[in-house]
């Protein structure tokens, strides 16, 4: 029983981790608190749904379309909308408020476009919905895929960020955007790249999630919220932290649902979240930065 | 002389607003209620967030608690007492939250308050289901919309008056220092924690009361209705648009935005979201420091010679 | 702030207040009637948009289109006036929906107002419909308090029954099947912590205990839950042959999928809102067979079949199998009442209360302002969501229990 619960928790946590990784990069490195993050996920989910239904392209191959599309779109959005704000703030505190407001606007724009295109209906289809036996627990293949993808993408990017020169440059921008140019790093380009990379991760998450989760044009906020919790718990900008925090949240939810009461899963999550914020504002796995 | 004139003008405007229900149809009054609700919310929000720099997204937590208190007690207690209970509940929550969180800085506070609103909603839901056994509550009160409006108007006037008093007091000066630099403030001997807590509590109680006053209009309350997160976001955007650190800023943000939302949703029901979003983005680019600052800049260029020195001190966000 | 700028601000404020007062007080221009104004406020955005977009809005649009293509609403003198629609988005906010109704009633002065979506919002606007004298044909609200509300608001009509109607019907079916020895008397039940789920689960407890069914698992989960594996495991381990979930659409789909993955095969599977959506059956194919829920249709009712076809042609998608057809029927009742009594809202309300109407549901007559002749339980059978309760009503299908295992 306990083993089953733990495995189910990890699988659920895989989804959370997958959803959160893009945001932690966008927020941690590009320093943009992107409130429209969830809408990117939903847009990708719609894309997968349409490709699957209209063109018969299965969700897995459509990752190859969605990820570059997410990258390109986020790249353009950063250049058009966010870069001027970054320039204006000059690295000051104003950027936080401005980026929250601007991406809040973006949230409505993307959501509105999806509403016009697809209406407000619940969308669901199923793909890879069969059980896979993991240590005696039957786990949905599509959810397992989310976990695997989270681990692969998260782990891979983590290695890239920590082991390569390119990754070091990105992290340098995250830590000290003003000083990075002194050592020859183009902070603007790095931030723009990081934002786009976050967008690509978000679309990957959206495609995978659409296989098993019902969504509507308005449900992006839920994902932003979940992602935000994971990002803060894991430490902003910390990929390995996001991965661990996502898995942890999944475990907490399943354990509470099994041993306490399913009615208190979300309350437990928020308790932990608020507790960690008070006790270690830089996250469970983050180093104190401020 | 000048200030006497301003006071007379203010009293006249207040009287005109108070008399408005006698000349209006239900929709006009409904519009005024919504407007006054957001004017009060934005002003109360700015009273704390605009003056300390702590951006709060917990507005709807207090707003919803107020609404719930009315739903819970409207049949047991006389109405004024219900409002007192609601205010006390808001105060209690504000003190608990304030004591534990005001040491959080910057965006952590933003996110905390957002999580708080969701937590309160979850706990209320859980309590209703497991303790009372139902989710929805009914508010059957014979309180006409004009009464709701007058209460909101009084609340709005009180909020603005309190804000004005605070801005002019020693506390206001202390706050400006805190917003500038907490370390300097601490060195100057300002009791940071107590100042912030007092302000947070005050602002939260007002927000709770707005929720309590508006609730009878909905007849039926459930967590999804009372804890609608849009309230937090709209309040924040309105206050920031007008200029959160100024006395009249939130009012000048709330009035045009509220009317604009109304106009957009009536004329473009299918493209409301898109237009609203584009507008937000435009605001960030065009009015970065708020409407009040924009108006002042214009005065500064037009009436440079007449500009009194006092503005310098208040010009800081 | 300087006195100058403050005065400027006050001036602006004063002017806007005055303009406002003038605008609001301006009398409506009376003119020759060329149309019938019908208004509604509906959730086009926000969390309620999903439900409103399936059950309510498409039917409003379909009805208006059909009436206008026929030349308009017919009046007692045989003349026809086209419908002019005034629509607002309430953005899933109670304050907005209240104001929108005030606006429709006093600013736009529409002839009739169609109700918003959802139990909570129908209650929020009920006092306004009453105050302004509009009949309220509340469809998308399931409430056991309807008789009370009718007393309070004389012109309110409640068209979808109450929670205990549905749970009594289910309990009856389960008891019968238990008596036949096909299932045991144990029930595992979960419910969403939202108005709908709680209303139904509160009604279900007494219904089940009266039917001598034993509830062995009874938990509530927060709206938005996506992972049901632990609840499904608990239910599977409880030994109950019946699994009931009073759920909302996203969860209904999730529970279905996760039950398949877990190879959880209760003999009776009863799920909440969403089961009656056409794409539920389409997505699941043969696996949908035997799944039960609220609502259902009589597949041999020609009027309903024709309605479903038109709905799909006009709006591009099939209607759901529960509230949609009732929504459309309520509009037909309004149309017929106008034809008989004209645009006088008092007379139309009276006609709705006392008249008998021919609709896509068949012949409809309200009892104490409530529609009582409803299908309270349905089941997917051969790709159709057919009605299986109440069992003594004409047109009912025989429920298939136990349900076949997942394929």
TrEMBL record, chain A:
<keyword id="KW-0029">Amino-acid transport</keyword>
<dbReference type="Pfam" id="PF02653">
    <property type="entry name" value="BPD_transp_2"/>
</dbReference>
<feature type="transmembrane region" description="Helical">
    <location>
        <begin position="98"/>
        <end position="120"/>
    </location>
</feature>
<keyword id="KW-1133">Transmembrane helix</keyword>
<dbReference type="InterPro" id="IPR001851">
    <property type="entry name" value="ABC_transp_permease"/>
</dbReference>
<comment type="similarity">
    <text>Belongs to the binding-protein-dependent transport system permease family. LivHM subfamily.</text>
</comment>
<feature type="transmembrane region" description="Helical">
    <location>
        <begin position="193"/>
        <end position="215"/>
    </location>
</feature>
<protein>
    <submittedName>
        <fullName>Amino acid/amide ABC transporter membrane protein 1, HAAT family</fullName>
    </submittedName>
</protein>
<dbReference type="GO" id="GO:0006865">
    <property type="term" value="P:amino acid transport"/>
</dbReference>
<keyword id="KW-0813">Transport</keyword>
<keyword id="KW-0472">Membrane</keyword>
<keyword id="KW-1003">Cell membrane</keyword>
<dbReference type="InterPro" id="IPR052157">
    <property type="entry name" value="BCAA_transport_permease"/>
</dbReference>
<feature type="transmembrane region" description="Helical">
    <location>
        <begin position="41"/>
        <end position="58"/>
    </location>
</feature>
<keyword id="KW-0812">Transmembrane</keyword>
From TrEMBL, chain B:
<feature type="transmembrane region" description="Helical">
    <location>
        <begin position="272"/>
        <end position="295"/>
    </location>
</feature>
<dbReference type="GO" id="GO:0005886">
    <property type="term" value="C:plasma membrane"/>
</dbReference>
<protein>
    <submittedName>
        <fullName>Amino acid/amide ABC transporter membrane protein 2, HAAT family</fullName>
    </submittedName>
</protein>
<feature type="transmembrane region" description="Helical">
    <location>
        <begin position="147"/>
        <end position="166"/>
    </location>
</feature>
<feature type="transmembrane region" description="Helical">
    <location>
        <begin position="197"/>
        <end position="214"/>
    </location>
</feature>
<dbReference type="Pfam" id="PF02653">
    <property type="entry name" value="BPD_transp_2"/>
</dbReference>
<dbReference type="GO" id="GO:0015658">
    <property type="term" value="F:branched-chain amino acid transmembrane transporter activity"/>
</dbReference>
<keyword id="KW-0812">Transmembrane</keyword>
<feature type="transmembrane region" description="Helical">
    <location>
        <begin position="220"/>
        <end position="240"/>
    </location>
</feature>
<keyword id="KW-0472">Membrane</keyword>
<feature type="transmembrane region" description="Helical">
    <location>
        <begin position="55"/>
        <end position="73"/>
    </location>
</feature>
<feature type="transmembrane region" description="Helical">
    <location>
        <begin position="106"/>
        <end position="127"/>
    </location>
</feature>
<feature type="transmembrane region" description="Helical">
    <location>
        <begin position="247"/>
        <end position="266"/>
    </location>
</feature>
<feature type="transmembrane region" description="Helical">
    <location>
        <begin position="79"/>
        <end position="99"/>
    </location>
</feature>
<feature type="transmembrane region" description="Helical">
    <location>
        <begin position="28"/>
        <end position="48"/>
    </location>
</feature>
From TrEMBL, chain C:
<feature type="domain" description="Leucine-binding protein">
    <location>
        <begin position="35"/>
        <end position="383"/>
    </location>
</feature>
<keyword id="KW-0029">Amino-acid transport</keyword>
<dbReference type="InterPro" id="IPR028081">
    <property type="entry name" value="Leu-bd"/>
</dbReference>
<dbReference type="GO" id="GO:0006865">
    <property type="term" value="P:amino acid transport"/>
</dbReference>
<feature type="signal peptide">
    <location>
        <begin position="1"/>
        <end position="23"/>
    </location>
</feature>
<dbReference type="InterPro" id="IPR028082">
    <property type="entry name" value="Peripla_BP_I"/>
</dbReference>
<protein>
    <submittedName>
        <fullName>Amino acid/amide ABC transporter substrate-binding protein, HAAT family</fullName>
    </submittedName>
</protein>
<keyword id="KW-0732">Signal</keyword>
<dbReference type="InterPro" id="IPR051010">
    <property type="entry name" value="BCAA_transport"/>
</dbReference>
<comment type="similarity">
    <text>Belongs to the leucine-binding protein family.</text>
</comment>
<dbReference type="Pfam" id="PF13458">
    <property type="entry name" value="Peripla_BP_6"/>
</dbReference>
<keyword id="KW-0813">Transport</keyword>
């Amino acid at each position: 029983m306990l083993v089953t619960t733990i495995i189910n928790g990890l699988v659920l946590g895989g989804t959370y981790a997958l959803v959160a990784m893009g945001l932690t990069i966008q927020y941690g490195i590009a320093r943009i608190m992107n409130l429209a993050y969830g809408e990117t996920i939903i847009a990708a989910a719609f894309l997968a749904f349409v490709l699957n239904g209209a063109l018969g392209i299965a969700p897995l191959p459509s990752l190859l379309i969605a990820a570059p599309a997410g990258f390109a779109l986020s790249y353009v959005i950063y250049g058009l909308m966010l870069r001027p704000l970054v320039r204006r703030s000059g690295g000051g505190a104003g950027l936080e408020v401005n980026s929250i407001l601007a991406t809040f606007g973006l949230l409505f724009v993307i959501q509105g476009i999806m509403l016009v295109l697809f209406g407000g209906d619940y969308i669901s289809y199923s793909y890879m919905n069969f059980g896979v036996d993991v240590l005696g627990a039957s786990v949905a293949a599509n959810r397992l895929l989310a976990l695997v993808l989270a681990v692969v993408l998260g782990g891979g990017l983590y290695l890239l960020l920590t082991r390569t020169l390119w990754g070091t440059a990105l992290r340098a921008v995250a830590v000290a955007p003003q000083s990075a140019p002194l050592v020859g790093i183009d902070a603007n380009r790095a931030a723009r790249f990081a934002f786009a990379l976050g967008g690509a991760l978000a679309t990957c998450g959206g495609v995978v999630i659409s296989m098993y989760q019902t969504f509507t044009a308005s449900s992006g906020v839920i994902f932003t919220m979940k992602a935000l919790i994971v990002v803060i718990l894991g430490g902003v900008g910390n990929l390995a932290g996001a991965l661990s925090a996502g898995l942890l949240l999944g475990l907490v939810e399943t354990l509470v649902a099994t041993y306490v009461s399913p009615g208190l899963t979300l309350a437990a999550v928020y308790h932990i979240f608020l507790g960690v914020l008070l006790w270690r504002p830089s996250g469970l796995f983050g180093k104190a930065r401020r | 002389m000048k200030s006497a004139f301003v006071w007379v003008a203010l009293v006249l405007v207040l009287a005109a607003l108070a008399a408005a229900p006698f000349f209006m149809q239900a929709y006009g009054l409904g519009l005024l209620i919504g407007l006054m609700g957001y004017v009060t919310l934005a002003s109360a929000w700015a009273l704390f967030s605009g003056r300390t720099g702590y951006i709060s997204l917990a507005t709807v937590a207090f707003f919803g608690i107020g609404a719930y208190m009315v739903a819970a007690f409207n049949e047991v207690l006389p109405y004024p007492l219900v409002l007192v209970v609601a205010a006390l509940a808001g105060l209690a929550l504000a003190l608990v939250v304030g004591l534990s969180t005001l040491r959080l800085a910057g965006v952590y506070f933003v996110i905390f308050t957002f999580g708080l609103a969701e937590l309160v909603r979850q706990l209320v839901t859980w309590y209703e289901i497991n303790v009372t056994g139902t989710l929805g509550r009914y508010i059957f009160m014979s309180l006409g919309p004009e009464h709701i409006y007058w209460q909101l108007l009084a609340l709005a006037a009180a909020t603005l008056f309190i804000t004005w008093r605070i801005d002019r007091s020693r506390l206001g000066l202390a706050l400006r220092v805190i917003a500038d630099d907490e370390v300097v403030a601490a060195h100057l001997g300002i009791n940071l924690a107590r100042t912030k807590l007092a302000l947070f509590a005050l602002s939260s109680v007002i927000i709770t009361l707005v929720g309590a006053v508006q609730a009878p209009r909905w007849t039926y309350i459930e967590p999804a209705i009372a804890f609608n997160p849009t309230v937090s976001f709209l309040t924040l955007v309105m206050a920031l648009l007008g200029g959160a650190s100024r006395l009249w800023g939130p009012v000048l943000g709330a009035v045009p935005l509220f009317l604009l939302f109304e106009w957009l949703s009536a004329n473009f029901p299918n493209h409301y979201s898109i237009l609203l979003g584009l507008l937000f983005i435009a605001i960030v680019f065009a009015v970065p420091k708020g409407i009040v600052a924009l108006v002042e800049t214009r005065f500064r260029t037009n009436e440079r010679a007449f500009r009194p020195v006092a503005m310098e001190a208040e010009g800081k966000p | 702030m300087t006195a100058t700028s403050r005065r400027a601000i006050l001036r602006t404020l004063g002017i806007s207040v005055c303009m406002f007062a003038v605008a609001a007080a301006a009398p409506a221009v009376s003119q020759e009637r060329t149309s019938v104004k019908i208004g509604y406020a509906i959730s086009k955005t926000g969390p309620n948009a999903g439900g409103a977009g399936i059950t309510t809005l498409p039917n409003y649009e379909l009805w208006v289109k059909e009436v206008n293509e026929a030349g308009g609403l017919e009046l007692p003198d045989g003349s026809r006036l086209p419908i002019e629609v005034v629509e607002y988005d309430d953005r899933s906010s109670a304050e907005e929906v209240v104001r929108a109704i005030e606006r429709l009633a006093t600013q736009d002065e529409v002839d009739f107002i169609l109700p918003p979506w959802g139990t909570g919002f129908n209650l929020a606007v009920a006092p306004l419909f009453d105050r302004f004298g509009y009949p309220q044909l509340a469809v998308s609200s399931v409430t056991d308090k309807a008789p009370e509300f009718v007393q309070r608001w004389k012109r309110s009509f409640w068209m979808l029954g109450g929670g205990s109607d549905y749970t009594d019907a289910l309990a009856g079916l389960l008891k019968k099947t238990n008596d036949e020895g096909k299932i045991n008397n144990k029930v595992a039940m979960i419910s969403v912590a939202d108005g709908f789920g709680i209303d139904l689960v509160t009604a279900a407890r007494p219904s089940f205990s009266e039917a001598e069914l034993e509830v062995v698992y009874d938990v509530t989960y927060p709206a938005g839950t996506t992972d049901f594996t632990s609840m499904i495991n608990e239910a599977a381990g409880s030994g109950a042959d019946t699994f009931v979930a009073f759920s909302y659409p996203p969860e209904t789909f999730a529970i279905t999928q996760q039950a398949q993955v877990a190879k959880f095969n209760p003999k009776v599977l009863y799920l909440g809102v969403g089961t009656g959506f056409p794409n539920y059956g389409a997505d699941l194919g043969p696996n949908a067979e035997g799944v039960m829920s609220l609502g259902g249709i009589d597949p041999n009712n020609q009027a309903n079949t024709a309605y479903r076809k038109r709905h799909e042609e006009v709006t591009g998608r099939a209607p759901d199998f529960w509230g949609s057809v009732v929504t459309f029927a309520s509009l037909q009742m309004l149309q017929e009442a106008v034809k008989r009594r004209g645009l006088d809202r008092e007379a139309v309300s009276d006609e709705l209360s006392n008249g008998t109407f021919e609709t896509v549901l068949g012949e409809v007559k309200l009892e104490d302002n409530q529609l009582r002749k409803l299908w309270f339980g349905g089941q997917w059978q051969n790709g159709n969501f057919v009605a299986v309760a109440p069992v003594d009503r004409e047109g009912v299908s025989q429920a298939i229990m136990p349900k076949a295992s997942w394929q």
